[in-house]
Write a structure and sequence with these properties.
This protein is of the alpha/beta class and 127 residues long. The chain has 2 helices and 8 strands, in the order E-H-E-E-E-E-H-E-E-E. The chain has a single domain, classed as 2,3-Dihydroxybiphenyl 1,2-Dioxygenase, domain 1 (Roll).
């Protein structure tokens, strides 16, 4: 039986560029770095208030990553989407979509990470 989700892996072309994006745009922290038995560079990023990590991987001598539209995305809850968006803009990052109110009362927006992976930002409805 599965006990819990530990991490999600995303392969990238430029690991340092991708790690910088997550550190600067979302203020995630590097938990650890290592080289896999196959020679891949791996960086694990901590996610706030969660045990799950994001694994960023760059494989040596592999074909370039080309993410298909709407293939996958990561979703993060933010307290105040307008304030978070303003902070992103001050760092030179802009939304690729939204903000969009949902039928549940939440507001969502997207920002593109390197290679075209989408990051969804969700401000949940106030209860």
């Amino acid at each position: 039986m599965v006990k819990k989700l530990l991490h999600t892996r995303m392969r990238v072309n430029d690991i340092e560029r991708t790690v910088r994006f997550y550190e600067e745009a979302l203020e995630l922290k590097v938990a650890r770095r290592n080289i896999s038995p196959r020679g891949a560079q791996i960086v694990f990023l901590q996610t706030p208030n969660s045990d799950e990590e994001i694994e960023i991987c760059q494989l040596p001598n592999s074909p370039s990553v080309q993410v298909q539209p709407d293939l996958m995305h990561l979703a993060f809850e933010v307290e105040d989407l307008a304030a978070f968006t303003a902070k992103l803009a001050s760092k030179g990052f802009k939304l690729s979509d939204g903000p969009t109110p949902t039928s549940s009362g939440s507001v969502i927006a997207f920002i593109d990470a390197p290679e075209g992976y989408e990051v969804e930002l969700i401000q949940r409805a106030k209860r």
